Amino acid sequence: METNGRETLQADFDTFDISEELGFLLEDPLTNLPDYYRVWLDLAYNLTHLIESRKLQDLVHKMPVLSPHLLSNHRELRLAHLALGFISMGYVWQEGQRAPAQILPKALAWPYWLVSRRLGLPPILTYADSVLANWKLKDRTGDMNIGNMDLIFSFPGGESCRGFFIVSLLVEMAASSGITGALEVMHAMKISDLIGIRKGLVKVTQSLKKMKETFKLMHSHVDPTAFHGTLRIFVSGWRDNPMLPRGLLYEGVSNEPILLSGGSAAQSSAIQCFDALLCIQHEDETGAFLTRMRDYMPPAHRQLVETLSVGPSLRDFILSHPGSDLGQAYNSCVSALVDLRNYHLNTVTKYVIVPGNHARAMGCPFRGVGTALNTTGTGGSSLMVFLKSVRNNTKKTLISERVSRETEI
Question: Is residue 378 scored above 90 in pLDDT?
């Protein structure tokens, strides 16, 4: 029976392109492409200097239009998407909030569009790029910890840029055991295995607590002023963004500007999986935004979120078994997710709201995002309204003693 369970889990890992140790992270990302694409990597590897010296846009204008036909496997495509995404963000935001580029040149836009179609991702830098696929080990024989990890490509912001993306990656890695737990719960429900469900829920709870503890690293590795004033603009998109209200024209791809959201934690497949497993309902604008963010996930990851979303309701199953201790295990899970979302709210206040208010009071001394996105997330959401909404919706899912008793009666 144990062997069958392992085989089932391994089949899930293969289907949904995840691993037990790394969760949704891309395993062992490439750092090089065939020589034909050298111009892309030369720009991407020197991006910070080229942005700060205002040379990136001129070099992009001199780029040849390359075909992605020599990209032969998934990891090559992911590196190409990552490189083109970083270059595109640098190109659009090189001059800061006052003069964003309105047109992405064909040498970037056309291959980026084709690579994106092959991957099933949009042609913009996503969370799946900058967090899940943008890492390497300094010492390949060492552990995956913040001291032994580095980014493949970076934006201006120095150590704060590295810290922001690497801490986000480590939070995702902490979610890996919870994803395994969610799969175990899903399969245990099919055969009404109460012990299996409880064990899976315990895994999810422990994982959520580890995610929160890992998230705390942000405070010692990311400076709020550097994040808000320098880095944040480079992960901002062109949908619901007052700096690019009409979107961005992809030359050679479309005759009209295209609206796309920037990278956002709302694009985390892990968090959306936990919401789906725990039957947390997000409605109205919040629900619509989260559903749209699934389009920014790799298709296999999106498929897992949707598989959990359409499966039998875990909450209803637990309410139909009031004599078990599943309600307590479920509530522990939900409470851990509430705690994580509260912590995220407080962190956003420190890194976005407070420095944004300071920038406004000081007449916006930063070259970067300044006050333009003070209340808007990089994905385009109304930031604090959205974060409070998902937190409150999570709280509502808790099973009260009264509901449990009424079900028992």
Answer: no
Beta-ladder partners of 55:
none
- Burial environment of residue 113 by CB neighbours within 10 A (0 to 12, 13 to 18, 19 or more): buried
Q: 406 exposed, middle or buried (CB, 10 Å; 0-12, 13-18, 19+)?
A: exposed
The tokens describing 46, both together, are 């020197």
pLDDT band at 371 (very low <50, low <70, confident <90, very high): low
Q: Determine how β-strand 149-151 pairs with β-strand 135-137.
A: antiparallel
Hey, is 149 helix, strand or coil?
strand
Q: Mind listing the pLDDT tens digit for each residue in 210-238?
A: 999 999 999 999 999 999 999 999 999 99
d(CA 41, CA 43): 5
Single-letter code of the amino acid located at 6: R
Q: How many CB atoms are located within 10 Å of the residue 389 CB? A: 20
Residue 94 and residue 367 in contact, taking contact as beta carbons nearer than 8 Å? no
Q: What is the mean pLDDT of residues 93-109?
A: 96
Q: How far apart are CA 284 and CA 386, in angstroms?
A: 11
What is the value of pTM for the model shown?
0.93
pLDDT at 372 over 90: no
Contacts of 34 (CB under 8 A, 6+ apart): 70, 71, 76
- Name the one residue in this structure whose structure tokens are 């704060």: 160
Predicted confidence band of residue 135 (pLDDT cuts 50, 70, 90): very high
Cα–chain-centroid distance for residue 161?
15
Binned at pLDDT 50, 70 and 90, residue 381 comes out as low
Angle at 18 between CA 114 and CA 306, to 5 degrees: 75
| Whole-number Å distance between alpha carbons of 137 and 26 | 13
Question: Closest Cα partner for 197 from 44, 326, 292, 76?
Answer: 326
> Which pair of structure tokens corresponds to residue 263?
């990278």
